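Components:
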Amino acid sequence: MTDVGALGAGAEFDAIRLMIERWGTRARGIGDDAAVVALPRGDALVASVDTAVEGKHFRPEWLTPREISYRAVAAALSDLAAMAAKPVGVLVAITLPERWRENLIELADGIADAVDVAHTTIRGGNLSDGSELSITTTVLGATFKPVGRKGSRIGDHVYVTGRLGAPATAVRMLSEGKTPAQYRERFARPIPRILEAVWLAGRGISAAVDISDGLVADAGQLAAANGLGIALDAALVPRFADVAIDVALSGGEEYELLVTAPTDLDVAEFEGRFALPLTRIGVVTPMAAEPVVVTGARVGSLHGYDHFSV
Amino acid sequence: MTDVGALGAGAEFDAIRLMIERWGTRARGIGDDAAVVALPRGDALVASVDTAVEGKHFRPEWLTPREISYRAVAAALSDLAAMAAKPVGVLVAITLPERWRENLIELADGIADAVDVAHTTIRGGNLSDGSELSITTTVLGATFKPVGRKGSRIGDHVYVTGRLGAPATAVRMLSEGKTPAQYRERFARPIPRILEAVWLAGRGISAAVDISDGLVADAGQLAAANGLGIALDAALVPRFADVAIDVALSGGEEYELLVTAPTDLDVAEFEGRFALPLTRIGVVTPMAAEPVVVTGARVGSLHGYDHFSV
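Structure:
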């Protein structure tokens, strides 16, 4: 059975909910970052699909072709990280307009970069003509113990990887015609936290999401999936240099992980191993009026990141 | 290692070959209808992706929205049939322009129809905004003994399922503004030959393809993959009522199976079980100047079906 309630708000989610309701029992396991499919010999396959459309999910003038395809595939791989699955391959379907054909090699190289970062390979693809560049990536992973959005309990600690706010700052500067300088790399070359997720799963985390829609928005997704609340202390949220707290809380295009854990995680071991911060930023609470309550800072209006508005 | 030679001719294949060469060892198993991915516990996962783009792969004025999404998903499922894999699920990524939103329920119903025909379920999806309707379907299957394009030997019999030519005849009539009458159903509602493929795999076939690009074109793909030739007797090719031999040989949009087998297949048992013809139409030969030699009928210029020209 698919748990429609696990999906969040917004027009895109409404449309997805409508389709899932129409599908009834034909739709299975949708609502997590990736589906878990049981195979005959006992493997648990984790699968997810993600599309990046020119002008909707990326602006060609902000990125090189190699960065565009890298980001598309890396974003899809991040859904495997959110499930703590080890990648076994990707399939890439590209709609390639005539005007993009001269960039084919660069697009291929960006895909290669992304599978290299995740230590995986390309297992299939499709190339179509069309009027806008579009890259649809299916990621396949294997896991012995999948982690999903559900599993958090009241009192669990909430942790986040990395330092937040650089991609959103880069997007804002790019839209203002400025050079994003030190913020650009985190926007143009996000790193799916694959190995980090496998480590975290081995330490007994109860749930995980990636925060591609922004910390507060995705924390809200995780809270909704569990029928619980999340209280975040804004003062604890790790920020990239000179990033405003609002941006760190709501900025999208992050591919860090938000996890809940019933016990203290060994932060020093994690940070030593991955050279990446792991920070406790809150706690799982009973359900409240708002799924996510932010304390510890005077913050403006917080909202999730809408890909459609890029 | 990926066998670039297994891909056929044409601009689309050239572009794919270019990417695969660029990817080197990062690309694995591409060239068959679907990739076979080995999983930790011993499962053989079969995966493939296929995209249908408005105005390129289908014309909205020829089909209902429900038929458009049905065909997109059924075509992808046919790649599992070509590998004799049993579907374990599909993932559907839809790019949905504003003007298509009112058809969302019909599109959902067509996807449901296709998974019902293949006795499978929807395991994930993605919905994006964009300027043209596009449906990218990833199909996942499991198999204990995958069948690919390679494996044919000289002297193997060549069989085809079904009766050919109806979809291409329907397309021709539609492009001439005529009503395709009895030909329409085979074009609008192609049936992936999933159960038939599993039966054939159990009877020791040596190779298989679906003939979505047309009998002669896909026979050429199979011949090329094996470094051999195929001789077809046109007089034996089963045709839909009142279809010209040229159309049966070269018409695309078929989702029948072409298989090679080292021994006689039990045609009566197959036909009794599936209410579908299984016809011996040729033999595997040494490589000749042309990969496919057609005898037994005076035929015009034969060429594969180009999706881009629809």
